[in-house]
Here is the input.
Amino acid sequence: MDFTANISLALADDIRELFENLDESSTDACSSLASLRRDFKLIVRSSLGFTLRLGGNQPVTLTSIDHFVSSSDIATSLWFPLSWMGPDQFGSSIVFYAGVPGALVDLSADLAFALSLPLDCLRLDQDLSPDLLESGIVGLEEASTISRAIGALIGRGHTSETAQAELGRQSDEASQSLYHSATRLLLAVNSDY
Amino acid sequence: MKGPDDVPAGKTPPSADDLPNPDQKASLEFEAARSAEDDDLEEGLTALSHLATGRMGLKETLLRVAQCASRAIPGASGVGLTLIEKGRADTIVATESFVTEMDAVQYDLKQGPCITAVADEQPIISGSIASDPRWPEFGPQSAGCGVQSSLSIPLITSDGVIGSLNVYAHEKNVFDDRAALLGGYFGVPAAIAVQNAQILAESKRLALHLRKALSNRITVERAIGVLMTRSGESPDEAMAKIRTISHTEHKKIDLVAQDIVDTAVRRAHARRIG
Here is the structure.
């Protein structure tokens, strides 16, 4: 299947990177992404794209947006939670963007109805500035580094829980982000890191 | 049933003059039938309004829509919903098995009320399918299903026609413009349900793919961290080691990684208890 019509090559590369070192192919994820872009475009003509945020200790955000979109092009947004999918997705959400004011009102009502959610569980026009104005994945490098550092601490005798707490403590003590503390810790383990 | 003796207090039984003449009687019967139809319609639409689709699969949602339509459209013997994907028609749900048979004959012959409704993007009514000149082959072949009347409503979205709602009846001349109007009430939510289901299903599928990959990736990265500490290996060397184990033990990479992390955690626990 040719995904390039619906998703950028850069995003496809980022998805491949997410799946790198795993036994699974990124094809299904790319296919779902392309279908979602297509379906959204069919329902909302002025659709510009969406951001899918996977919640958790190390959130990762995937943005799929039209080329050359600037923040002033985004006239309306619709945020809705993915918690209805199950406990794994608590804290996860998706934001759809469109270029015509009011273009997402019907979709908002339809999705609220379809999911039996109160309308105020969906946010209209409150997320008009995506973290990224180009297609890609944000947070994967940070999540990988933090996970490696937690692994390094487990290798030093910590349990999963105490390793996370220790990394948090080091981060607080150095007034650094978890990512920076994790990088420092890994450099101490292997100076070539 | 109330008998003549059940006349409410204060009211007298009707005299012969009060009884309706044949015209009035027909009119009253028509009104009564309309009232019953309206009750059915109200019931069908009420059921439809309580239909929340997100937690149901698309098929279940559409079957409910078809059942509501079957209840609300006067004279309907069975209802089906056809979706067109990549130019191919497929009956997704049917309230009765003969509906599926009727539709299958149409798809084979590429003619029939459902096919015409989709092509013309407007409701198609037939009061006598067997002799309908629009479908010279379909009419005779559909006779075995015992269907004489049909009403097909196209499911129209902003992208065009995505399918049709097909209503069939065993008797002749059952459906009229009013039935087409009623069918339209169900065609709209069916089309919306399909679109919503697609958006929700794709959002879900994408989130699940990414969540699973991220979760596995985190496990693999943790295992790399464990190996880096243990033997001072670089991340690439650690990953190569995980790959080798995966290959020699015929085990998936994330399971190998999980084993490495679990073993390290068990050792940590044992050390703490010891």
